[in-house]
Each structure stands twice: as C-alpha cells, then as structure tokens.
Amino acid sequence: MSVIAVVGSPSAGVSSLAAALADRLPDHTVVEASLAPDAVVVVASAVAPLADSDLDLIERAASGTDLVVGAVSKIDAHRGWRDVQAADRALLARRDERYRQVPWVAVAAAPDLGEPDVDELVRALVACLAKPDRLPRARQPSRSVDAIAVRGGIQRARLTLTYFVRRRCAEIGADLRAEAAELPRGGVARFGDVVRDAVADFGAELDIAIDTVMDEAIGEFVLTPRASAGPPPQPPLPRPSSRRLETRLMVVLGGGFGLGVALTLGRLTTALGPGSDLIGLVVGGAVGLLLTIWVVGIRGVLHDRALMDRWVGEVIATLRSGGEETVARRMLDAEIAVTVELRAHNSVLRTHDRRPRSTENHGKRRNSASESFL
Amino acid sequence: MVGRTGAGRNTVAAALRHHGVAVTADPATAEVQVLVIAEALKPEESAMTVGLPTLIVLNKADLTGSHSGGALPAAHRSAADVQRRTGVPTVAMVGLLAATTGASEATGEMTGALDDDLVGALRTLVSTPADLRSVDAFARGEHPVGHDVRTRLLERLDRFGIAHAVLALARGDEPATLPALLQRLSNVDAVLGGLRACAAPVRYRRLRAALAEIHSLAIELADEGLFDLLNSEAAVLATMTAAVDVVEADGIRVDPGDHPDAHHRRAMQWRRYGGGPVNALHGSCSADITRGSLRLLDGRR
Description:
The complex is a heterodimer.
Chain A: E1 3-8, H1 14-24, E2 29-31, E3 39-45, H2 52-62, E4 68-73, H3 81-95, E5 104-106, H4 119-130, H5 143-181, H6 188-218, H7 244-270, H8 276-344, H9 368-373
Chain B: E1 2-3, H1 9-18, E2 33-38, H2 43-46, E3 54-59, H3 71-86, E4 90-92, H4 95-99, E5 102-103, E6 110-111, H5 116-127, H6 135-140, H7 147-171, H8 178-186, H9 188-221, H10 224-230, H11 233-249, H12 260-275, H13 280-300
Parallel strand pairs in B: 1-2, 2-3, 3-4
Antiparallel strand pairs in B: 5-6
C-alpha cells in the first residue's frame, strides 16, 4: 500500500481527481495532502498554464518524494489542453532539474457528461510505483502513516499531561488548604516547608508522568528529544505582612475585654464577704489578663491561617502554569525531534526493534482537514 | 487589459474592441484596468488589482463545470465569490462568444454572423447529434460533418456555444438570430456595464477638467459665449449625468424622477449628502447633482 498525495491549486480539480483515484486504486491510500507521500500527483487545470504561485505549491508538496506525476485536468472542457500541458511541462522543468523526468498525463476526473477518464494516470502511477529503485526498501507501506501517528500521539500526550497537571494541582491545593485551616500556633515555618516539599514532589511526579506518556506515544521510534529541562517552578514566598497596627488594635480590644471580665469578677468576689476585696482584685486581674492574652493569641493564629491559605492559592497557580509550560516545552522538543528525524532519514521514522508495531487499519481516504487536526 | 497567459486576455480584448471600447495593453496610458482571470483568482492576480480602477472579468464562464446547476450560474457564483474576497467588481463572461459577435456601431446591426458552412454543420447536428462529452470526442468522433468544420465550430463556439446554437436551431430560430443569442450568452453586456461603472469617475474627472479649461479660457478671453456655454443647460446636465454615474457606481441610488417635487427633493438630499463626511469626489458630485436638479426644477416651473 502506498500513499498517493494529490495536490494542486484551488479549483484545479484536486478533490474530484482524488476521489476518482481512490475509486480506481483501492490498494493505495489517496490523500489530498500528506507529510511524506510515496507519490505526488500534481494537478494543473487545463484552463491556463501554471502560475508562479501554483509552482510554489507544487514544489512544497513534492519536496518529500521523488515520484511526481503531472496531470492536466478538465481536458473534456478545454480545447487547448495539449498546449497547456506542454507549457506546464516546460514551466515545471524550468523550475528544477529534477522535474525534467516528470511524466505528464491528461485526465478528466469529473466531466459534465460521461465517465471520469483517469486511465492514463492510473497506468502511469501503477508503472511508477512498481519500479523497485523508486521506493525505499524497508517499511515503505506505512512511513507517512507513522509520521501522522507520531504527531497524533504527541498531541494526545499533550492533552493527557495537561489534564494531569490540572488535576494534580487541584488535589495538592485542596490538601494544602486543609492543612492550612488546621495550622497550629507558630506553625508557619513548618507549613512553609510542607508547601515547598509538595512543590518539589510535584515537579518530580510531572517528570515521571511526562516520561511515561511520551514513551507510550513515541517510544517505539528512535527519537531523541533534546531534554531541555527548564527551571523548576519556583513557588512565590509568603507575602510579609505588617501586623503592628493589628496587634495594637487587638491589645486594646482584648485589654478592654479582659478589663471588663476583671471588674465583673472582682465585683462578684467582693460580694462573698468581708476580706474578699483583695482576693477579688487579684483573681479578677489574673483572669482578665489571661483572657486578654488568649484573645490576642487566637487572633494571631487566625491571621496566619488566612495568610497561608492565600499563599497556597498563589503557589498552586504558579505550579499549574509552570507545569503546563513544562509539558508544552517537552512536547515541542518531541515534535522538533520528529521533524529532524524525518528530514535526516528521507521521511522515514526508524523504530526500535523491541516492540512490534501494531498495524493499524487506517481509513482509505482521509481528508486534509482531519489530518491538520492531528 | 491585464491577465496571465492563457486566461483569455486577447479574446476579451477583442470582444471589448468589437463593442467600441478602446483597449490597450500599456498600463501607462490606461485609465481603467480590466483583469482577465479564468477559473480562480491566483495570488499574483489579486496583487494586480491595486492602482487603477479595476474590473475583474472571470473569463471562460462556460467551462466552470455544470455539476451544480449549470455552467453560467456556477460562474456567476464564483464571480460573486471573487468580488466578495477582493472587493473589486467582478463579472463572469464567455469571451469566446463575445469576441466574434457584436453590434456594429454605425448601423446597430449584428455583425459576425456564422458563415454558411458552420450554419449547415449546426443544422446537421440538430438532426444527427454528435458526441459532446468532451472536446476530443466531438472533434474526432465519427460524424457526417467533416473534421475540419467541426474543429472550426469548436474554435468559434466551443461546446457550450454549439449546444446552445443547436438547441436554438432545433426550436426553429433563424440562423440570423444566432449572433444575438451568442452575445446574450457571453454576458458581454454585463461586462460593458461593469466597465461603464468602473470608468464613471474617470469620465467625470475628464469632464470636470474640460470645464475648468473652458472656464479659464473664458476668463482669459473675456468671451461671453464661453460663459454662456458653461452655464448652458446642456453643460450643467451633462456634468450632473456624469456625477450620477459616479455615485451610482459606488452603490448609491439617485432618484430618477422627472417632476418638480422629485427635483426639489433630490436637490435637498444631495445638498445634505455633500455636507456630510464624504470624500472630495463625492462632495463635488453631490454639488453637481444639486446644481443640475435645481436647473431642472427651474426649467419645469
């Protein structure tokens, strides 16, 4: 099975010809665009000779293959198709030496009346594809399918990993928040360590996850993505907060509360009997002082908890964007590696021998839209 | 007249020349540009639409394929599509059918009638249909009409023209009516209309320049006759007509009514229009329309 790409300028009849060819060549995959096709059918409308923009398009499409067949389309309608064909042949040959040998045929893939006429093209294609020296020896059937599969795998890995980053960040955030809500007095320093540990753990976890997923996606091919480990996400430090004013306020409020309790207790103890004046004063004063200290302390702990909660939110946001950035960078590295590999080895992806490749049964015709989605 | 090789630039040029349009390939002397394209607009062609006022002619409208409701409707649709994408007025045309037929300017008669051989061949085709599936099948298949005559027919009318001519003859039309039919099919009238709209600003500017020249001459020579000419009804109304063409080419309707109310209303409307945020050309046009309307109003009283 070979991949045949049909290319040409808009309204030259590319879609009709691809459909007609797919009907006539059920053993081959006919696509309208491909990364690394085995053969490229260049469609030129018989309405007029090729324009420069058409030639650019053809050169781009034909750069990945050494088997190019030119087809002048719509010959049922245009009287002068023979002149146009000769002109196209000359124009393409003038572009590059290697197009000198391109065979040119004439087709009418979607005539107004009668049957499609693509016999000549089918004969030319079958003859060219059968030539042994044209094709690379090994793995030729699925090489462009491989490239598509690898790119698809990378995109899938990107989705999986992005989802992983979001889910883990949400989980870590929930855990840390729960811990911050229970923060004991003076536990701020320890909590800071807990958060930093969680961040470091997440970084390691993400690295492992990326390695696993990428191995599944492209592990069977000999690809060495440049491991560009960016700086690990640095969590922001908790914001310093000035509590002097608040402490003063709390001392005043707590002091007032304590004073009130002290006076009430003193008055109550005085009523116990003679001589209890002094005791009342001492007990009331002591209880009032203790209450004051307790209220001020509680307020401090609550303040720390609120502060830590906010900080956890910031850390998680940083962690998430940093994680997504890492994923994006690693995917980019992998894509670069695929492209470099394709270019270096004549559009073939080499595989490791350790795993057999499952031969997937791809649809006979894929349109370019779904390919570009991949 | 510009366009890439093979799009039919020369055919369309011949057709326009037949219909009394002065055609040149030299962009320096041209005042309006006709860009001939075929099938689809290429990037290098859309780069040509800047500069002069341009009309795009989508030539070979008969060859766009008849899969979606006939070749001409399909061609009109793709012309509308090109116009939408480029913002340049675009008309579909069958240049081949217009190139050889045309109304003679002197007599108004149709010229370019088919010669007897071709008419005879068409009559034979009515009774013995030929293989019209493709141009090669038509030219090479077995048929009572000789090969060279069939080739000539193809060169003259192509399959589209042949099919329509044969149908017309089968309906019982006279061969003399064929050129008119072919001209109608070629859509050349729409092209000429588009060209007229495109050239309206050019005509208007030329007229204004001529009037300015006469004005300065009149002052220089202190010639009463020239002043009278400038203020004559003919000059004012001619300027108004040119101005109306300009604004109508830009899609603004001008009330064509011919009674005092209409003149009054038009004068008011265009006076207001001229005071609005419009460019210099439209400002000048609206002044001329107002002036002409007032003159007409005056004449009716």
